[in-house]
Amino acid sequence: MSQTTVIAPVVKVLNVRCPVEDAFRVFTREISTWWPTETHAVHDGDVREVVWEEREGGEVYEVSTSGEKAHWATVTAWEPSSRFVLAWYVNPERPAPTEVEVRFSPEGETTRVELEHRHWERLAEAGADARAAYDEGWDPVLGRFAERAASVV
Questions:
Q1: HSE of 4 in the Cβ direction (CA atoms, 13 Å)?
Q2: What is the mean pLDDT of the segment spanning 94-121?
Q3: Which of 26, 36, 75, 120 has its CA 20 to 30 Å from the CA of residue 91?
């Protein structure tokens, strides 16, 4: 019998200066306005748009300037303005998707955004290294999101 080592999730929490509905919309529908596609995409620096299909079973994908579609994730839970969950599969060479859950809740005059990126063990030997890269990588990505969200008020 083999044992699977559980790798701790990446957890990021931030507060953004906008209402919950705006934060959720910016993170999802308006992802092309803040996601760093120049460095964080299948077609780095050659992305025309990122599309988010707003429903359970929908896709999140990028479209290159030449029209090529590259799948990022499948929406596995869709609760507008409060949370979503993605089967995150940006690197097509990975053996399985990880999972990203993002929750939005009002906190005073801001919105608390909690991101949990989990199931690194699904990536076998590559899981620990991938987790370390995302733990560092989510910070600047979420920083761009926070700047964009604050600008919608």
A1: 10
A2: 96
A3: 26
